[in-house]
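Invent a record, attention on tokens:
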Amino acid sequence: MSKYKLFQIPPLSFYSIELYKHMALNKKGVGFGYLFLLLAVCWLLLTFSMDYQIDSYLDKYAPGLISQFPTVTVINGHAFIEEQQPYFIHDPETSEVIAVIDTTGSINSLDSSDASILLTRTSVIFKKSDVETRSFDLSDIVEFELNQDMLTQWVDMTKSYLSIAVYPFALAGSYVYRIIQMLIYALIGLIFASILKVELDYPQLLRLSVVAVTPCIIINTLFWTFGANLPFEGLLYFILTMGYLFLGIKVTGEAIREQSSE
């Protein structure tokens, strides 16, 4: 039976040399199961934080934006509104024009506008950058109506389900990324082991790498949760992980030599 429970590993990974020795010498597998559980918990925390931030943003921003929207009707690929045109929709906070509706043909591009969206009689144009736009043709739409009630429903659905929908994809993506990262870190561990003259196989180095990266995953999660930025975070996390990995290999080598001398 393992000396440590799974929930003990994250806090102990910050300071316990006994944990690193135990993971290298007394555990089986490569630690990817533990890594998945750690990421699952971290992404739960991040998802709750993201959900709160999105809800707060939409509660503040959406009503002022939705209240400006006219009812847009599309019939057989042609859009109509009853309001006088061109019709401008402004950012509720800055009052800058963010969208233009003109189905009369007087405005057909965003070239001379700071707006990001233009609805013409037959298409919707999005400005991706100062030099790139995307256009979506309305010809396939037989009948459709977009109004404020529908937009409000979409906002409510976003608040209710976006974080739930994002969670599995974020977890899967980060898990694949971390696995690749651990495979690389274990290769670096082979170099450290050679320098320190410690005989460890690749699975042992994978387990040590998973433990060594745990503090960085936790720190990164806390920074993201509270919206803080760490300068040069990628480099700092790499240096910190390599420090833990080097230390883990070193103390494991000392433990092996002590066992051999007994």
